[in-house]
Structure formats: C-alpha cells, structure tokens
Amino acid sequence: MLVDYSKIEAKDKYKLMSGGIIPRPIAWIVTENEKGIINVAPFSYFTGLSSNPPTLIVSIGHKSNGEPKDTLKNIRDSKKCTLCLAKEEQLEPMHFSSKELESDISEATHFNIATKKILEDFPPIISGVPLAFFCTLYKEIELGGSKTIPLILKIKSEYINDSAIDKDLRTDFSAIARLGGEYTFLSSKITPPKIED
Ligand SMILES: Cc1cc2nc3c(=O)[nH]c(=O)nc-3n(C[C@H](O)[C@H](O)[C@H](O)COP(=O)(O)O)c2cc1C
Questions:
Q1: Radius of gyration of the chain (CA)
Q2: Which residue, 24, 36, 72, 195, could crosslink 44 as a Cys pair with Cβ 3.0–4.6 Å?
Q3: What lines the ligand 1 site, CB under 6 Å?
C-alpha cells in the first residue's frame, strides 16, 4: 500500500500519522486564564526540540466551534504553561481532562484533579506527577494556514519528584504514551548494546 498524502482526507492523514509515529509522549498541560481558572488538557503532538536552548514543541488545535482550544488561548495570553508528564496511575484523569469543556469550567474542578503550586509565577503542577516543565512561549510556527498551531516552548525550570530520579539524574517512572488512538505504558528499560570502537 502506498499512500499519496495529497489524495487523502485530513482525518485519514491523522489516522496514519498517529498510528505510525509511535509511541508519542503526552504533554499534560496546565494553564491559567485571565480569571485565574485552571485549565488542564493532554496533547500528544509533542516532543523535545533541543536541550540548548531547552525547548520543546507542542501542536494545539481549535475547538469544535472554531475557537482556539483553551490551552492555546491561555498560552497566547499568559505566555506560560506548566507541562506535566503523567504516570501510569494517572491515565484516567489525564484522559478525562481531554473533554471539551466551556472555558470558564476548570477540568481540575470538574474531574477532581488535584493541583499543587510549586512556582509562584507559573500555573500549578498536577499533584502526583513524576515531573513537570515550567515553560514560556518562545514562538508560534506558521504552517500555511493550518488550524493546528505548533508552539515552541522554552523550559525555565523542571520539577522532578524525588522518587522518579536517581543521583545521576536518570529518571525512572512508568510514563503513559499514545499509540494511535490507544495508550501504552513505558515501564521497561533496555540498556543499549555497546558499540565497539
Ligand atoms: C491523549 C490525547 C492526546 C491529545 N493530543 C492532542 C494534540 O496533540 N493536539 C490537540 O490539539 N489536541 C489533542 N488532544 C485533544 C485535546 O486534549 C482536547 O481537544 C481538549 O479538550 C483540549 O482542551 P482545552 O480546550 O482545555 O485546551 C488530545 C487528546 C488526548 C486524549
């Protein structure tokens, strides 16, 4: 089967790309709107870009009514977000928080997702997450009129739960990743074989 992307519909491109680019990490993003309402939502078009400068990219689209998703609007307005990585036990609240709610309803309140303030000038983390990046908006990428907007975020600080890292800064937790429309847990590590000189 050979698929010419100029001949298929957007929903099929999404199916093929999300089923092929696997596993995708999930950015569980916390933002705050101008009224102080905490917004929580997951995004899997997300990856690291560079460690120097420490940057990552996440692509966020629009709601069914055509307005920018709350996360996109809040990041544009406040230039900030707190990007959490969920652990295996948090699959259910993470998934529930993807429900499209009115902007003035917080997913944190609606789904009873506890949050915890770590840095005064950033949105809170979701309680219990192994790690979180406190980010500022660096740049929006223009993708030829696309409704999905890639945002480059700069990492200012990182929170890591002590149980999720060792003294050599190696993290260890069972992360959730997206496999097409399903999920998987990334709980086993394989040490790479040594490449001889
Ligand atoms: C695991 C998962 C990954 C998702 N990834 C994305 C994504 O990369 N980009 C996007 O626009 N929406 C993505 N969504 C959908 C958003 O989470 C959903 O539209 C949510 O309602 C947005 O909330 P907000 O309006 O509060 O920002 C994803 C949903 C799930 C469950």
A1: 17
A2: 24
A3: 26, 39, 41-45, 59-61, 63, 69-71, 95, 98-100, 178
